[in-house]
User: Which sequence fits this backbone?
């Protein structure tokens, strides 16, 4: 009797709760015939979310998570003074000229730490190697201070390495702020046994802060200030960002002046062409370079005028092929003396260079494989 | 002697490699009824049908082992309605296949829909991935997303015929 | 005889408990069904269920007409050229989501018609009327999250 009652109760429970399994909601079957697009125009929100502006606009060239590339600069002529004390623009007395080819690996990574509508925070790093292949010199030439510079560069090349971070913080639907910071360790060091070891006291820091507006999906602009070594030595500049895409979505601009500016032509969603320039540069510590002066820094900066063709290979892997002309901006040498503290020369400073150098105009090529972001 | 052994080994390898060739066959599913009950309103509507995969039965009939199958693609997709009607009420139709373990795949799209016909062949997608894996599932859903030009009281009742091109290995 | 009866009762009890559990699971999973609007307000997506998986299609666009062609927008950036005639309104941009646990729908993909790219995707429900959708490449760390709010037809 008890068992019978228990059985009935369990059966009741089973029927009450289990039957709905067999009536699983398959909404396309049950709601066919109730689709009417016009009804979706008049809706009211059940949920509340704050709206923030997007860090990108339509059709910008893709952001690179990881980039591996090879850079090659065709033969350049380097004209140098003897060691001394020079202001920029001083005459070259008793100059020496030598030729070399530059080439090397470039690896960059930018990975998101936080990637949400209300904040985007990335950290990144870079490793760029510049090798020097000097063409053979006449062995009968008299010695010159450039010989010591070239010995140093030929032995180890130049290494540029950095860690950087970028924060994009939208304030509301249209306004945003950007902050970037970077620490660089540059010099004629390497990782093999006989290479020079870098000194962490030579780390250079750069930063930028911008405030901007994104009025619509095809325009984004910002203004700010930057502390930078792109000119080869410490300087402060105003910064202007202007990213634009045309109504027909076929062309646009990507400008972060004075660092870089490009006109963009979009062929389709898988290939674009950029035409413009980029200012690249930093200050490199020359270790074990017998210049007598202490704590030598090579102030290297160049303007690259270029065409950059970018194309999707498969999925999120894109290839970039650049070709252009490298125009030298700065290749002079400073001594930081006993203090080893970098100084600010700016455009009107009177601190003197230890050696002046001129590097000739040269064509360059760059190929890279890039993992791009959504 | 060693040299001869190596040559014989190499030739055997070449022979074995060339011993397989790829053949093709066609699996036809011609009885799918993709249905949605009216009334239907202007805009996007979804119709679907669930069917059991005929792959195993077909392979048995053809004496092909499932292990020898290399790939499958949808080579033809034909939609039709009853003789007394036509496809005029539809502005566009896309057909997809999905199953519980395989993702949804776009099979074919028709935009615009030709007027005053009751049967049409739809151009199939160029990129078709993992169709073979889909066919290996027991249960498959065919889903048609149709755009209706104006409100109508009729049902969506599309008869769908699909041909799958199967490539498989055979021994020479 | 009594043991056999008891055994049968236990089986029925077990099925009742399991059935109850599945029903609860279905109810939780089906909270995703409805109409959702991304944070940029430029579209509305209707999420529905086919079989046991969840799919979402565009049912409204803020700017439905292509300014270049002056006709309804098509999927012109699709990697497959044969699919570029498909209208965006009605396009399934969310596919193949399975409900896991803890208010998460995973194993799905999201399609971005702006560049014709498909991303892996996971949906989390923060509250019943707000979901976060994360599209990513390979690992979740390499992606971006957006918040969508639920809307109801007036």
Assistant:
């Amino acid at each position: 009797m008890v068992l019978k009652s228990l059985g009935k109760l369990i059966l009741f429970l089973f029927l009450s709760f289990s039957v709905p399994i067999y009536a699983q909601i398959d909404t396309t079957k049950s709601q066919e015939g109730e689709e009417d697009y016009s009804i979706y125009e008049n809706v009211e929100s059940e949920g509340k979310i704050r709206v923030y502006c997007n860090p990108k606009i339509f059709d910008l060239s893709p952001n690179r998570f990881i980039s591996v590339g090879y850079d090659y600069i065709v033969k350049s002529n380097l004209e140098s003074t003897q060691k001394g004390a020079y202001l920029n623009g001083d005459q070259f007395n008793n100059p020496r000229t030598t030729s070399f080819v530059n080439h090397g690996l470039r690896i960059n990574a930018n990975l998101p730490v936080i990637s949400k509508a209300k904040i985007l925070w990335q950290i990144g790093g870079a490793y760029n190697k510049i090798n020097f292949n000097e063409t053979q010199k006449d062995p009968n030439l008299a010695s010159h201070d450039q010989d010591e510079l070239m010995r140093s560069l030929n032995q180890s090349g130049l290494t540029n390495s950095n860690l950087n971070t970028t924060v994009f913080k939208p304030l509301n639907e249209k306004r945003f702020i950007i902050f970037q910071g970077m620490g660089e360790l540059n010099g004629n060091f390497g990782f093999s046994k006989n290479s020079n070891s870098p000194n962490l006291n030579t780390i250079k820091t750069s930063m930028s802060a911008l405030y901007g507006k994104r009025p619509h999906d095809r325009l984004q602009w910002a203004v700010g200030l930057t502390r930078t070594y792109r000119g080869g030595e410490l300087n402060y500049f105003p910064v202007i960002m202007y990213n634009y895409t045309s109504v027909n979505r076929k062309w646009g601009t990507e400008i972060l002046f004075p660092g870089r500016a490009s006109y963009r032509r979009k062929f389709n969603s898988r290939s674009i062409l950029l035409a413009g320039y980029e200012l690249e540069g930093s200050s490199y510590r020359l270790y074990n370079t017998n210049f007598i002066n202490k704590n030598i820094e090579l102030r290297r900066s160049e303007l690259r005028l270029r065409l950059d063709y970018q194309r999707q290979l498969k999925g999120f892997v894109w290839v970039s092929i650049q070709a252009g002309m490298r125009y030298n901006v700065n290749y002079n040498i400073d001594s930081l003396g006993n203090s080893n503290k970098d100084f600010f020369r700016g455009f009107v400073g009177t601190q003197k260079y230890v050696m002046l150098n001129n590097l000739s105009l040269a064509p360059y090529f760059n190929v890279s494989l890039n993992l791009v972001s959504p | 002697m060693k040299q001869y052994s190596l040559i014989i080994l190499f030739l055997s390898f070449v022979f074995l490699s060339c011993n397989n060739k790829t053949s093709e066959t066609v699996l036809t599913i011609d009885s799918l009824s993709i249905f949605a009950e009216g009334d239907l309103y202007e805009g996007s509507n979804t119709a679907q049908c669930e069917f059991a995969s005929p792959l195993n039965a077909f392979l048995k009939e053809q004496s092909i082992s499932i292990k020898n199958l290399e790939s499958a693609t949808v080579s033809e997709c034909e939609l039709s309605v009853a003789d007394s009607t036509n496809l005029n009420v539809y502005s566009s139709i896309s057909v997809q296949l999905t199953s519980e373990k395989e993702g949804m795949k776009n099979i074919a799209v028709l935009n615009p829909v030709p007027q005053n016909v009751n049967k049409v062949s739809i151009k199939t997608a160029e990129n078709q991935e993992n169709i073979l894996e889909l066919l290996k599932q027991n249960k498959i859903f065919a889903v048609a997303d149709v755009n209706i030009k104006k409100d109508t009281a009729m049902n969506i009742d599309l008869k769908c015929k699909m041909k799958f091109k199967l490539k498989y290995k055979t021994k020479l | 005889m009594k043991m056999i009866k008891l055994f049968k009762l236990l089986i029925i009890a077990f099925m009742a408990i399991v059935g109850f559990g599945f029903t609860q699971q279905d109810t939780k999973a089906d909270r995703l069904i409805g109409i959702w609007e991304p944070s940029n307000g430029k579209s509305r997506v209707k999420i529905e269920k086919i079989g046991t998986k969840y799919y979402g299609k565009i049912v409204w666009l803020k700017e439905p007409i292509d300014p270049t062609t002056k006709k309804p927008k098509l999927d012109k950036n699709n990697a497959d050229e044969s699919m570029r005639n498909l209208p965006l309104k009605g396009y399934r941009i969310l596919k193949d989501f399975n409900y896991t646990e803890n208010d998460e729908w995973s194993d799905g993909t999201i399609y971005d018609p702006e560049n014709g790219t498909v991303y892996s995707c996971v949906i989390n429900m923060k509250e019943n009327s707000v979901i976060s959708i994360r599209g990513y490449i390979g690992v979740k760390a390499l992606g971006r999250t957006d918040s969508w709010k639920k809307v109801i037809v007036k």
